[in-house]
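This section describes the prediction task in plain terms. A model, or a person checking by hand, is given the sequence of a single protein chain and must write out its three-dimensional structure as a string of C-alpha cells. No templates, partner chains or ligands are provided. The sample shown here is typical of the held-out split.
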Amino acid sequence: MGEFADAVQKRLRERLAERRPSLDWQTEYRVGPTPVDVAGVDSGGAGESATAKTLALVELEWRRADPADNSAKLFRHLADGALDEHDRIVVCQVFTGYYDLARGGVSSKRENAEFVGRVAAEAFDRVSYEPVNFDLDPPKRGGEWPDDWRGRADDCARRIDDLLG
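The expected answer:
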C-alpha cells in the first residue's frame, strides 16, 4: 500500500481503538501467512489458559484488482484452523469508491468479493462477514489526498464499530 493508504489504515486502527477499547487493535495482523489490514483481538480475560473470544478483522480494499482474493485467502486459513481459538470472528471488508460504478451500483469485482465472504460466513457458525462502504475515492499513488479524508475514515470506523455489535 502507499503512504496515503497507510495513513488511512492507521487512522482506522486508532479510531476503532477509541470506540472499542475492549479489543487490542493492531495493523498487519497475521492470519496464517496473510496480513490483515486492521484487527481487534479480545484476549478473553487474564491468565494463560484464557481463550480468545472475539476477533474483528478489517480488510481495506483500496484499488485492488481482485478483492475476492483477500476474502478467499482469509476464509481458507479459517478453514485450515488458523483461527480456532476464537469464539466469534467478524470480517469487515471495506470498499472505497474505486469499486462504485458511475451508472450506480458496484463493480463485479466487489460483487465477487462479497459473494465469497457471504458464502464463507454461511459455512462457519462463529463467523460473520460485513461489506462496508468507505466514502472515499482513493487517489492514485502520489496523487493529492482529499482534505476531508480523516472525517471519512472516522465515519468508516463508526460503521465498523456498529457492525461489531
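For orientation: The radius of gyration is 16 Å.
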